[in-house]
Structures are given as structure tokens and as C-alpha cells.
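Worked problem 6 (solution included).
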Amino acid sequence: MPGHRPWTLSRRRFFGVSAAALVAPRVAAADASAAPAEPIIDIHQHTHYHGRTDDELVAHQKTMGATLTVLLPAGSPVNRPSTHEGKSNGLQAECYGNESVVNLAKAHPKEFLFFTNEVPDLPEARTEMEKYLRLGARGIGEQKFGVDCDSVYIERVAELAQDHGVPVLLHFQHEMYNLHLERFHKILEKFPKVNFIGHAQTWWANIDKNHADQTVLYPKGKVTPGGITDRLLSDYPNMFGDCSAGSGLNGLTRDEDFTPGFLDRHRNKLVFGSDCEDAMGSGPKCQGAQIIAAIRRFAAGKGIERKILYENAKKLLKL
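Solution. The predicted structure is:
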């Protein structure tokens, strides 16, 4: 039972709770659990996320209000530089791999879809991912490995995505995963037919033109438009943004004057994701519920809200 597993405050959840504490007084009435029953696609969830059971995940998503959820698997557990000698196995969060997400999606076909994933510099990476694409995977990701974001390994992932007409979701984190965001435009230009979805700390920190210290992963305060992320979303039709996790919540709530314009400007390019590890699905301990509330609060109109919470993902996933 969910109440029997002790709740621990991970670094990721700490930032989510901190941001939630700031935004909660203004969005309490818009909490996902109290919202009208409208379709919501959550493009970012995991099986066995820090030990959470499948039953807990299913209940979490229902409570949060997600009507369709994309399950993102981990790659094979291997010890090599791209997994930081095993530290990053399980997406550094004990997440399970391809078979796990397939099984849960089969058990709940109306509620879950799945992507496929593999450590990109493994010789068998393409074969492994192609196997699951043929089984119905709707995309590739979460690519969260220690390689340059414009490396030959990411090119190979993009080639596979291009061959199968599916999107790729990447975790950008300074000195850890998909390094050198400032060079990702090369991949976007080389693979204009592939849709890429950006996520995580370095992605969201760089909404700000003045974000100079890349070691700061959760920056606070005012945002100046025109950061790397802002430009990639504006300049490349095949670049999209995932609002999930503590990084997304921080990005949406750090500057209340900036966010409405950002959501308006990228109304066709942003998608909702939760990427939260809790078993509750509501309240300040659930980042996903707080992200939904923030989107509803800052979207300048119902049309923008529906695009970000549902329509953009529906289009990306070709549903």
C-alpha cells in the first residue's frame, strides 16, 4: 500500500516542493484533483520510479487527472562512461526498462502508451529500440546519458526516429547528460523531419538569455527572453519542450511576469509532463499536479491551456 512505503525527499522532489510552496497559495483552487474532467496527456512518466509500484503509478495518474500517459523506459543497465559507470542506470532513479513499460501499457491500453530507449553508444542500441518500435512504441526516450547532444550517438538515435516517424525526448543537464545544449541546433538542422522534445535542468534554466553560470541548475528570479531554449523553440519547427519535473515547475513559476508570454509564444511547442515520483497525485508533494495548476494559471486563455495539456502531445504522438 502507498502509505506503507516511507516518503523520502529527493533533490528533484525538494525543488518541486519548494516551487509548489511558492505557487500553491495562488493556484489552490486550480489543483488538478479539483479541475474539470478534461483530457490530459502526460508525456513523461516512469515505471518503478524510486521503487513506486505499478498500482501506485496507475492510481497516481488517475488522481492527478492524466487521461493518457506516456511511459519512458530506462536503457540497459551497463557500466560504461555514458552511464557514468553505472551511476545513471535506471535513469538514475531506479526506473525499469523496455519490457516493464510494454507490460504496463498492455495491461492498461486506454491509459498508457510507451516509448523505447537504450544506451545510445551500445552497438546493439538501434536493434533493441527498433524491436520495441515495431511493437508499438510511440517515440524514443528518455535519452538521459553522458554523451554530447550533437554526437554521432544522438545522430544514430535521430536516424532511427526519422525512419520510424517518431519523436525523441532528451534530458539536458550540464556536465551530466546530453552535453552542450548550445550545439543542439546542429541536430535540429540535420534532422528537420524529426521532432525533438527538450527536458530537464539545463533546458529550463536556459529560457533566460542571461543564464551564464551553467552549473546553476535551478535558477531563481527574473527571466530575460531570448535564452538558448527560447530561441530553439522559436527558430526550429521540430523543437518542443516538456514542462515536467522540478526543473519545469521552477521554470514556469520563477518569474510570473515572464511565463504568460512564454506560454503564449510557444503555445504550439510545449507539452505537459509530470515526471514525479510520488504516490499521491495531488497536493504540494506532487510536482505534476502543481505543473498542471501552473499551466492553468499562467495560460492566457483556455485555448493555450488545452494545447499544452493535451492537443500538442496528441499531435506529436500522432493520435
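Discussion: The chain has one domain: 9-316.
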